[in-house]
């Protein structure tokens, strides 16, 4: 890695780039997740709408976008969604940096709590969020599935 990685705000105009990173990152989970991640049916306008809320972040290495996350203000809490790191950039601490910056967004909005969803089928992702201080609060099932398929995890920001 020769270029430093900079994390910056993502604009709604960059929704197509953000969605492309998400799809590359979540591509590693194809065939492992039931149901499949909705990132593959997500639309650019839907991502642009989320980015318009101000909590989207892009990680750039030189002129190439290599990671992203969307933090949303839900009123009484913030939501960390779709943390995505380009497969060739994993293991460098970028996911941690993006998650912590999303938490900064939540704090800047005066939120004391941030939550996220993570698939039960991805124990490495669960362990990653636990290492950041998130704890499981609930198990939920996607519509039409009788057994839980994902965890709700939260972290106090106070």
Helix amount: 25-40%
What amount of the residues lies in strands? 25-35%
SS summary, helix count: 4
Low-confidence region ranges:
none
Task: Please provide a written account of the structure.
- By secondary structure, the protein is an alpha+beta fold.
- It has four helices and seven strands.
- It has helices at 15-26, 44-51, 94-108, 123-131; strands at residues 5-9, 56-61, 64-73, 78-85, 113-119, 135-140, 150-156.
- The protein has a seven-stranded mixed beta sheet, with helices on both faces.
- Helix 1 (15-26) crosses helix 2 (44-51).
- It is globular and about 45 Å long.
How would you summarize what this structure contains?
The chain has 4 helices and 7 strands.
Secondary-structure blueprint:
Elements: E1 5-9, H1 15-26, H2 44-51, E2 56-61, E3 64-73, E4 78-85, H3 94-108, E5 113-119, H4 123-131, E6 135-140, E7 150-156
Parallel strand pairs: 4-5
Antiparallel strand pairs: 1-2, 2-3, 3-4, 5-7, 6-7
Features:
158 residues, alpha+beta, 4 helices
């Amino acid at each position: 890695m020769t270029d430093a990685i900079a994390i910056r705000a993502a604009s709604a105009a960059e929704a197509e780039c953000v969605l492309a990173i998400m799809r590359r990152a979540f591509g590693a989970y194809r065939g492992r997740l039931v149901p499949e991640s909705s990132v593959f049916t997500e639309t650019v306008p839907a991502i642009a709408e989320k980015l318009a809320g101000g909590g989207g972040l892009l990680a750039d290495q030189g002129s190439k976008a290599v990671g992203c996350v969307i933090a949303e203000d839900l009123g009484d809490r913030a939501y960390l969604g779709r943390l995505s790191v380009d497969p060739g950039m994993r293991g460098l601490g970028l996911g941690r940096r993006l998650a912590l910056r999303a938490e900064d967004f939540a704090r800047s909005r005066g939120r004391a709590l941030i939550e996220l969803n993570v698939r039960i089928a991805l124990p490495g992702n669960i362990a990653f969020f636990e290492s950041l201080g998130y704890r499981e609060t609930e198990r939920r099932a996607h519509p039409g599935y009788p057994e839980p398929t994902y965890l709700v995890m939260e972290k106090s920001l106070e």
